[in-house]
Amino acid sequence: MKEFELINRYFKGRGISRRDVNLGIGDDCALVTVPQNCQLAVTTDTLVEGVHFFEDISPRALGHRALAVNLSDLAAMGAEPTWVSVALTLPTIDSQWIAEFTEGMHEIAEYFNVQIIGGDTTQGPLTITICAKGTVPEGKALRRSGAKVGDWIYVTGPLGDAGLAIEARKQGINIDPTHLEYLNNRFDYPTPRVAAGQVIRGLATSAIDVSDGLLADLTHILEMSQVNAEINVESIPTSEAMKASLDFNKQLPFILSYGDDYELIFTVPDNNKGMLDLKLSQYGVDITCIGQIKSGNGKIELLQNGEMFNFEQQGFEHFTKEQV
C-alpha cells in the first residue's frame, strides 16, 4: 500500500463532516471557516513510541490516546474542538494495525464532533504528531496567567491513576486484576475534559491540564500568575483502585508528580463557587477543591492535616528521563 492509498482508505471520507470545513483531505491545504467573534485555538503534540506509550499498546488505544491528549489542551483553554491534522510516521505499512489505529482515532473524533482535515504520512520510527484546532469566543479563553490571591484551586477528577498504570507495567506491581484494568484504561484511553473546560470558561480565572503532574503543571499557573498555592494533600481526589492498591504515603508520588491523567486544574474566585457547582453538576463532572491561591511568586506549599509537608519529586520533563 502506498501513501495516497493509505490516506484514501483510512482517512479521506471517514468520520464526521463539519459544515465549517470548506475543503478537507485531498488538497495542499484544508480550508475552514472560523466563526465570527471567535479566536482560533491551536495545539500540537507528538507521541513517540517508548517515551509516551508502550510498544504493546493496542493500536485502537493509541489512536484514541493520540487525539485525546490534544483535545485536553483545548479543554484547558475552554475551547470547542473543531478540526485536527494528523502526521503519522510508520516503520512499515501494516493494514490491520492502521485500520485499528484509525478506528480508535475516528471514534473519539466523532464523539467530540471533530473532523480530521489533513496531515502527512511518512516512514520511520513510530511517531504520531497531531495539530488540533478549536474555537473560543474572543477574549474568553482560559489562560495560565489569571489566578488571583484568594482563588480556590480545583481539580476535575482523581489523580495518579495513569502513573500507577505505568509503574505497574514497568515494575510488575501486584494489583488486583479489576483495579489494574481500570488503571490501564485511564492511561490508554484518557478522557479530555472538553465539556468542563467550556463550562468553567467565564467562571475560572486560570486553567491547565495535568499532563506532567500536579506539582509541575500547577507551578506553570503560579509562575505565569505570580502567585503561590497552598495545597492540602489529603484533599486531592484518588480512585478506589489507587486506594486499594497503595497506602497513602506510597500514593503521593503518583498523585503529586506523575502526569498523563489529563484532568483539569483550575482556579475560581470565591464569588463564583456556587455557580461552578451548579453548572458542572449538570454535566456529571465531579470537582474537588484542593487548596487556595496565596500571595507570592510561584511556589507551592503542601499541607497534610494542617501541617507543613515536604515533597521533593517533580513532574515529567523531556530530555531528563523517559516516561515509559
Automatic annotation (TrEMBL):
Highest taxon listed in the record's lineage: Bacteria
Keywords: ATP-binding, Kinase, Magnesium, Metal-binding, Nucleotide-binding, Thiamine biosynthesis, Transferase
Annotated Mg(2+) 3 binding sites: 28, 73, 209
Domain PurM-like N-terminal: 26-136
Residues annotated to bind substrate: 52, 260, 316
Sites where the protein binds Mg(2+) 2: 45, 73
Gene3D superfamilies (UniProt xref): PurM-like C-terminal domain (3.90.650.10), PurM-like, N-terminal domain (3.30.1330.10)
Residues that coordinate or bind Mg(2+) 5: 212
Function: Catalyzes the ATP-dependent phosphorylation of thiamine-monophosphate (TMP) to form thiamine-pyrophosphate (TPP), the active form of vitamin B1.
Remarks, miscellaneous: Reaction mechanism of ThiL seems to utilize a direct, inline transfer of the gamma-phosphate of ATP to TMP rather than a phosphorylated enzyme intermediate.
Protein name according to UniProt: Thiamine-monophosphate kinase
Source organism: Pseudoalteromonas marina
Lineage: Bacteria, Pseudomonadati, Pseudomonadota, Gammaproteobacteria, Alteromonadales
